[in-house]
Specification:
Blueprint: E1 2-8, E2 13-19, E3 25-28, E4 34-39, E5 43-47, E6 52-55, H1 63-70, E7 79-80, E8 85-90, E9 93-98, E10 107-111, E11 116-121, E12 127-130, E13 136-140, E14 145-150, E15 154-158, E16 163-167, E17 176-180, E18 185-190, E19 195-201, E20 206-208, E21 223-227, E22 232-238, E23 243-249
């Protein structure tokens, strides 16, 4: 059984069908080019082949408790009681704010791999992203970031946590930037990729598998390594942590990036 809540935004009134507690929620993505998600808890986003957003059910609170939570929001039409979220859509961007406390289980979402996504967790939660061919933005205040089977561009920043990124291809359309203030960076790049890799660690060390005979250009701020003759820029910076860089990662079967 589903019930309907209309989400009123400044630009669009969305009639949505929501499942009752314990069921997955599905939302069609027609006209949406980017999804922005903010949560106090951790966020898991995986790709799939369907042109819809799927939020996996979370059973940490009863529907009655969530209805009580929703009553505290000034505009209750903007709050989905069962999911504990505030939704807004304008100009092709769908924004989801997970307004519950950070000590609940991670928010797990499935999206098509060609959509641009922007994720931020403001509490202790971590971010996991798997299987996207479009732009990925990931911001974590305290937790780790793990981006798998990506082609970029990627913008990832963590104040405290480690960042792991596995490029199975490198999209040449825009540069990538991966920065951690205190954590380590673990970066895997497909052996066939072309990129100008700029990297620096202010207080840590750098470990790489660069082939012999291919030189690294030293510079005051960032060292430069032209992988396979160079290409789009991938900037790696850790202020206090180490950087672990592998450039011999075999490219996967193409189905990896088509979603599950």
């Amino acid at each position: 059984m589903n019930f309907i809540i209309k989400i009123l935004t400044g630009f669009l009134l969305l009639p949505l069908a929501f499942p009752l507690s314990g069921q997955d929620y599905r939302f069609p993505l027609e006209g949406i080019r980017k999804v922005v998600i903010e949560s106090q808890a951790g966020i898991i986003v995986r790709s799939h082949k369907k042109e819809e957003l799927v939020i996996k059910a979370r059973d940490t609170r009863s529907l009655a408790q969530d209805a009580e939570w929703a009553s505290t929001i000034s505009d209750t039409e903007s709050a989905y009681a069962s999911l504990g979220q505030i939704w807004e859509s304008k100009e092709g961007i769908l924004m989801i704010k997970d307004a519950r406390e950070e000590d609940i289980e991670d928010l797990e979402i499935f999206l098509p791999p060609h959509l641009n996504i922007s994720l931020s967790t403001l509490g202790n939660g971590s971010l996991l992203v798997d299987g996207f061919t479009a732009e990925v933005e990931a911001l974590s205040t305290k937790g780790d970031i793990d981006i798998k089977n990506a082609s970029g561009p990627i913008v990832a920043k963590s104040n405290v946590g480690d960042i792991k990124v596995r490029f199975v291809f490198v999209n040449q359309s825009a540069p990538s930037s991966i920065i951690s203030s205190a954590g380590d960076l673990y970066i895997d790049i497909a052996a066939s990729a072309s990129a100008n890799i700029k990297f620096a660690s202010r207080a840590g060390r750098i470990y790489s598998d660069f082939p012999e005979g291919q030189s690294v250009t030293k510079a005051p701020l960032f060292d430069l390594y032209p992988l396979n003759g160079g290409g789009v820029e991938i900037k790696l910076l850790s202020s206090a942590g180490n950087i672990y860089l592998r450039t011999t990662v075999p490219a996967p079967d193409s189905s990896t990036l088509e979603g599950k």
